[in-house]
């Protein structure tokens, strides 16, 4: 019965996401119609007073369009700037907005590979680009979608994918209190940075603290097909409490996720099972203090490939991390810290001879935390320092037990990363960044980029620079 | 050099409270709480009490008036508003306010956009916009 409900939910979500994706294509069409549809009676009255005005405006707009079309034909260099101008222009129906970003990083490491072959003279292996559109056809209804391309080592090819496609309806709103529902492919709300982790302008460094924001399981953590309830409420005169709770189907169909959860890329495949996610953030009215707690209850199961003589049996695993987040914002500096406890639980289905134990019944608790300070020397120059630590098994922090039991390498079970970085806001739309990491341990390295743990070094250095443009 | 210094002093004096929150004449509200105002500029409160759209207009982050309104009225730093807006825009859970390039454009947009809210120096306010009292 439970299986039946799950599979039904599965197909429901599957159809839903397809439906939402199709809906996104209609964004523009809706946008243009909504300009007429959205006005309330009160506004209609004022519209009646100046209908001529409005008509004049729309013909103006039309004239502009024809004008730009003509000029783009005769003058090619103007095309890009015309397009940018159009993307930036504000007089669009339905409050249609476009935003986007492009970032390119250069990363070089003393040893070990990060986003490509970085220890052999460096690599331009990290490219991130995104384009989003949002529209408000009704005052309380917002539709939005983002397409994202990420080229990063073996795990991400740069093929554009639908990052989010959301239908958001605000059911209730009064002063600082709101309540609403979101349906579609949503970014997973956990920690301070997860939802916008691919946008260089919104994260504190080129590489987010990897102990919590693993780049190798990013697809699993990033977005999922969900139904989410959200609400904000004011807490006396102190601030606002915002909460989100979602029922989701995680995205588990990529190789990086599979090798992270199952030790290597397997012959069978991981299934999407109904999972849950929730986050609450308290923020004081002056936004100086922010305190958050996030939790995920992720379920997935493994179907072996019997035709390929799969050594793994059918099994289920649960991953249930809880993250505590805290941030203090002053005019010049910001202090941020997050702590995560990450229990993994594999059931007894995975039989993996000849390894003595394999994945069967593994029940380990990982632990991660970081402390981070940012300082704004001037509005244009910012600095950052951070200490970030990850322990795959908190009861075996140096990996020695693991090495003894499995013959594996102990430094694959932890990573302690000291980061120093500088950010230069060249213009509000263009930013350059440089940073240095000294890392002890290899626990967060991508196994796809570093297939042999024997070839990895425990102590290593990473240098990165990044340029990012946004609009 | 002295001239630049004088301009700086003048801007500082102006920043002290010589601005107002203004709305389009279609907005019937005459007064708002600071919390509601902050929710509006944080882009989380999206509709006026009568159900119509709120449309927020702002100047650039480093504009003198924008800084004065952020710090003096909303009690937040401009960079905090920016990161709030970025979170909304790039997670798909909200929209950014519309950025205008000058005081003149601010006056024009607020005066001509139904449901609009923005801010102006007192000297630039005319009868085409309503001044909102903040309690």
Helices and strands, with pairings:
The complex is a heterodimer of chains A (471) and B (135).
Chain A: H1 2-25, H2 27-37, H3 41-49, H4 51-74, H5 78-88, E1 97-109, E2 123-138, E3 141-152, E4 156-157, E5 161-174, E6 177-187, H6 218-222, E7 223-235, E8 239-250, H7 255-262, E9 269-272, E10 275-284, E11 289-303, E12 315-319, E13 322-329, E14 333-346, E15 363-376, E16 381-391, H8 400-406, E17 414-427, E18 430-441, E19 459-470
Antiparallel strand pairs in A: 1-2, 1-19, 2-3, 3-4, 3-5, 5-6, 6-7, 7-8, 8-10, 9-11, 10-11, 11-12, 11-13, 12-14, 13-14, 14-15, 15-16, 16-17, 17-18, 18-19
Chain B: H1 2-15, E1 19-23, E2 31-32, H2 34-41, E3 55-58, H3 64-74, H4 78-91, E4 98-99, H5 103-112, E5 116-121, E6 130-134
Parallel strand pairs in B: 2-6, 3-4, 3-5
Antiparallel strand pairs in B: 1-5, 1-6
């Amino acid at each position: 019965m439970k299986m039946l409900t799950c599979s039904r939910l599965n197909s429901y979500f599957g159809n839903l996401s397809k439906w939402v994706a199709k809906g996104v294509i209609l964004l523009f069409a809706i946008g243009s119609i909504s300009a007429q549809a959205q006005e309330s009676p009160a506004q209609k009255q004022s519209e009646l007073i100046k209908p001529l005005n409005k008509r004049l405006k729309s013909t103006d707009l039309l004239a502009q369009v024809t004008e730009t079309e003509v000029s783009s034909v005769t003058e090619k260099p103007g095309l890009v700037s015309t397009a940018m101008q159009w993307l930036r222009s504000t007089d669009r129906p339905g409050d249609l907005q476009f935003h986007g970003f492009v970032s390119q990083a250069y990363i070089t490491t003393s040893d070990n590979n990060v986003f490509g072959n970085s220890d052999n003279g460096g690599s331009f292996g990290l490219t991130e680009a995104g384009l989003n559109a949002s529209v408000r056809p009704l005052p309380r209804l917002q539709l939005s979608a983002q397409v994202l391309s990420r080229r990063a080592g073996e795990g991400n090819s740069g093929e554009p994918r639908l990052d989010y496609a959301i239908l958001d309806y605000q059911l209730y709103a009064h002063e600082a209190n709101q309540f609403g529902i979101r349906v579609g492919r949503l970014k997973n709300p956990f920690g301070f940075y997860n939802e916008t982790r691919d946008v260089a302008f919104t994260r504190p460094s080129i590489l987010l603290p990897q102990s919590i924001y693993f780049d190798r399981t990013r697809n699993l953590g990033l977005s999922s097909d969900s139904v989410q309830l959200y609400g904000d409420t004011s807490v006396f005169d102190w601030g606002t409490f915002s909460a989100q709770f979602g029922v989701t189907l995680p995205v588990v169909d990529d190789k990086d996720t599979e090798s992270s959860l199952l030790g290597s890329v397997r012959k069978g495949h991981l299934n999407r099972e109904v999972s849950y996610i929730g986050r609450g953030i308290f923020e004081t009215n002056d936004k100086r203090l922010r305190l958050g707690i996030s939790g995920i209850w992720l379920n997935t199961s493994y179907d072996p490939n019997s035709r390929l003589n799969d050594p793994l049996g059918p099994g289920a695993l649960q991953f249930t991390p809880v993250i505590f987040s805290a941030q203090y914002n002053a005019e010049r500096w910001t202090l941020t810290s997050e702590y995560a406890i990450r229990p993994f639980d594999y059931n007894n289905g995975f039989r993996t001879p000849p390894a003595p134990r394999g994945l069967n019944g593994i029940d380990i608790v990982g632990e991660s935390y970081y402390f981070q300070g940012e300082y704004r020397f001037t509005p244009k120059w910012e600095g950052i320092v951070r200490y970030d630590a990850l322990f795959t098994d908190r009861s075996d922090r140096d990996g020695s037990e693991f090495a003894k039991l499995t013959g594996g390498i102990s430094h694959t079970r932890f990573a302690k990363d000291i980061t120093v970085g500088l950010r230069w806001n060249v213009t509000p739309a263009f930013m350059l960044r440089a940073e240095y990491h000294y890392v002890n341990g290899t626990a967060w390295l991508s196994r796809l980029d570093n297939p042999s743990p024997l070839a990895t070094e425990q102590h290593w250095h990473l240098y990165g620079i990044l340029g990012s443009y946004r609009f | 050099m002295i001239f630049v210094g004088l301009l700086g002093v003048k801007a500082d004096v102006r920043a002290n409270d010589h601005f107002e929150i203004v709305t389009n004449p279609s907005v019937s509200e005459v007064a708002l709480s600071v919390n509601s105002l902050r929710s509006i500029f944080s882009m989380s409160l999206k509709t006026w009490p009568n159900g119509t759209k709120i449309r927020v207009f702002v100047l650039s982050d480093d504009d003198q008036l924008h800084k004065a309104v952020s710090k003096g009225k909303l009690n937040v730093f401009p960079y905090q508003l920016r990161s709030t807006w970025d979170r909304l825009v790039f997670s798909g859970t909200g929209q950014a306010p519309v950025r205008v390039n000058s005081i003149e454009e601010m006056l024009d947009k607020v005066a001509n956009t139904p449901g609009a809210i923005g801010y102006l120096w007192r000297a630039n306010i005319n009868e085409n916009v309503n001044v909102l009292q903040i309690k």
